[in-house]
Each structure stands twice: as C-alpha cells, then as structure tokens.
C-alpha cells in the first residue's frame, strides 16, 4: 500500500502517477520497468516517489490492484444485464471482457502481461495475490443460475466450469503475447473457440 503521503496528494497528481505507472508496466512489464522513467514522466523526484511507495514492487502491486479493481467493477455492473442461461452467459461475459480490453488497451496489456509472463520472479507473487479473487469472479458469474437441468450436482458443475474457464483463458491469453496484436482482431476468434468448447461441455453436463 502507498504511504499516507501519497493519499495527501491532490487527486490529479495521484491519477497522474497511476497513469504513468500503468503505461510503464504495460509497456515494459515489471522486470524491465524503470522508476527513472516513471518519475521523469510523472514530473516528480525519485525521492518523492519512494516517499509514496517504499519499493518498486509496492508501486507495481498498487497499480495492478487499481487496474484489477476497475476491471472487476466495470464487468460486475454490466453482468446484471447478460443472459441467465449459463452457457450463453459465459459467452456474453467473455464479450464484455473483450469490450473492456478494447476500451482500455494499456490496462488490458498490463493485466495480461502480469498473469502470463510466468518466467518472471514477480509472477508467482502475482498468482498468489490474485488467485482467490479470480475464482470469486467465476463464482459470481454462475451464482443464482438454475442448474436443475444439469447431470451433476451444482458444486461439481461449477467446479468443472471454473477449471475449464481458467485453463481456456490462460491458454488463450498467452497467444496474445505477440507484437502488434489487437483485441479487436482476436475477439471473434476467442468467442468462436469458446463457443465450440462449450458445445462439447454441454453434451457432458446437461441431462
């Protein structure tokens, strides 16, 4: 967490530091990011930055927390309006995710990089920090859904879907780690592939 001094800054200065941090970590990842570039772009001294955040890692996780919270809050607001039918709900939710990525490309690049660069030291800390929150998202997606027409009991069905979605998303997001990709380009491919796999799951899960 930032020190008290950070929150004593006016909101414009706070937002500027956060915005610069998002851009830096999205572009370079954690390992290759530079606090020198951050302070230069923010218009503050390096001494000031480390009065607000004791380490680069603390700054990184504050930025990541901020972006993750924005992502989850945005989707939760829109999830209310999507289909109550489970499989269609998953597809529509995925479309909402991509819509957010398209509208927030730098934030999306930061999130995807944080959860797919498994060869970095910071990756394990990131996974440990957010793994529970990730499954909370899946739980919220399927809660209050009528599963009476499913072959197995509710918890087993939910577990299967959570494991599938996590594995599918992790695998697919790795494929975005190429130069010059665009979320618009891969959105249709993602939804098409997801729909095909869900059709297979339907055969095994529905009565």
Query: In percent, how helical is the residue content?
Result: over 70%
Report the strand count.
Answer: 0
Structural class, judged by helices and strands?
mainly alpha
CATH superfamily heading: Tetracycline Repressor, domain 2
What name does CATH use for the topology? Answer: Tetracycline Repressor, domain 2
CATH architecture: Orthogonal Bundle
Overview of this protein structure:
By secondary structure, this protein is mainly alpha-helical. It has one domain: Tetracycline Repressor, domain 2, CATH 1.10.357. Helix content is 76%, strand content 0%. The chain contains ten helices and no strands. It has helices at residues 4-8, 11-28, 35-42, 46-52, 56-79, 86-103, 105-116, 121-142, 154-174, 183-205. The longest helix has 24 residues, at 56-79. It is elongated, with a radius of gyration of 19 Å. 18% of the residues are buried.
